Amino acid sequence: MESTDRVVAGRLRLAAELRRLRDLSGVSGRDLAKLIPISQSKISRIESGQALPTLPEVAKWAQALNASEETTAHLVFLTTNAFTEVQPWRELLSGAGHLQDEVEQRESGAKTIQILQVAVVPGLLQTADYARRLLGMSQPPYMKEDLSVAVAARLHRQRLVFDEGRQFEFLITDAALRWKPGPVNVLLAQWDRIASIATLGNVSIGLIPQGTQASATMSHGFAIYHPADDEHLPFVTVEMIHAAMTVHDPSDVALYEKRWSLLSEMAIFDDEAQRYLAKLAHKARSTVE
Fold it and tell me: One short Pfam family name for this protein (predicted)?
């Protein structure tokens, strides 16, 4: 079974177990809504697998229906698994040339996206040359024709940045800015691209200079998505070496939002960030002249 199928199956299993518990208790959806409380419409969506209940909601559900400790523990286990999806790259890429379309779909459904990158420039800001060189280092490696398609798809995603109805916030470390996938000219063009995108009204780009006093650690990058649809809660994606992880649990998402806030305190923005990029470019040019 594909990883995505397992995720869906896990959520449907949780929905079926919650529905089964309510049916066995003889409590109607209307009455359960009063006991928890959750709206009756949301209870219907949860039981059909269309909505994912939070861990506190599942705990209240079990308590309201006098579930045993064993049943409650099982429901908590199913909920925890449903809230954190870990999808190995080998499974995600199996039979697919690239994943840019899936990422674009996720981005298209968000009204605000906050992206922290500690290793490379974020994909939504990359130049074509930078993207081609970066994707060319992927493991397992792309087939030549797939690499060209992946680069084109990544560039196609970038049109969303120019949609004034969406908000994009980026935090980029100095190490990510200086990571060098090719000749100096590749970085010069990339820094110019960042400086240009930073002038858009719906885009905020914060740079975290080397030597800045830390207010938080940053062991890996992540992205926080705030869906345009109020029916869905914010979620976080993390790209690890072996897999992609998606976090839905509100308490866990709150940890990432707190970390974002702390890291933002370390960043420079607007004119100060533009001067920093100009300084980097001046120093890089001087080394090749």
Answer: DUF5753
**Domain final residue pick, 83, 113, 139:** 83
Query: Considering its fold, how many domains does the chain have in total?
Result: 2
16-64 per-position pLDDT tens digit: 999 999 999 999 999 999 998 888 899 999 999 888 888 888 999 999 9
Tens-digit pLDDT profile for residues 118-160: 999 999 999 999 999 999 998 777 777 889 999 999 999 999 9
pTM above 0.85, yes or no: no
Are 46 and 18 within 8 A, CB to CB? Answer: yes
Residue with tokens 């949780």: 14
CA dist 130 and 180 (Å) reads 9
Q: Where do the H-state alpha helices sit in the chain? A: 3-25, 29-35, 40-47, 55-64, 69-83, 89-92, 100-108, 128-135, 144-157, 174-178, 184-197, 250-264, 270-288
| Cross-strand partners of 283 | none
Give the C-alpha separation, 246 to 213, whole Å. Answer: 30
